Amino acid sequence: MANPGPASSVSSPALGTGSPYSLGTSASSLVGAYGATPVVQRASSNQVASNMVTSASFGASQVAIIQEIMNTLTGLGLWKGAA
Q1: 50: in domain
Q2: 2, 28, 60, 78: least CB-packed within 10 angstroms?
Q3: Quick check: 35 and 77 in contact, CB under 8 A?
Q4: Considering its fold, how many domains does the chain have in total?
């Protein structure tokens, strides 16, 4: 469904007002937002958070984790990756 804009009378389902709501029921489910092409769940060794919390200095591991977060959000259409 195309975004009808703020003056629309089209209602959206309310989340969190009853039964649990699941977005992407498996790793192969396609998920997208704001008109981005739906994509499957990303999988990367950089997603292991232990490098982020155990390192005393900010280095290549932390940069790789942040880049993976940015790539994931961009792929979902939740982070605008380009101007």
Answers
A1: yes
A2: 2
A3: yes
A4: 1
33-62: string of b/e by CB count within 10 Å (b at 16+)? Answer: eeebeebeeeeeebeeeebeeeeeeeeebe
Amino acid at 55: S
Quote the pLDDT of residue 43.
Answer: 74
Which amino acid, 31?
A: V
**Rg of the chain in Å (alpha carbons):** 17
> Residue 7 domain-assigned?
no
The answer to whether residue 52 is domain-embedded is: yes
Q: What is the mean pLDDT of the chain?
A: 73
The phi, psi pair for 39, rounded to 5°, reads: -130, 160
For residue 67, what is the enclosing H or E element?
helix 60-76
pTM, entire model: 0.52
Locate 54 and state its tokens: 């155990």
Q: What is the pLDDT of residue 2?
A: 57
Residue type, 59: G
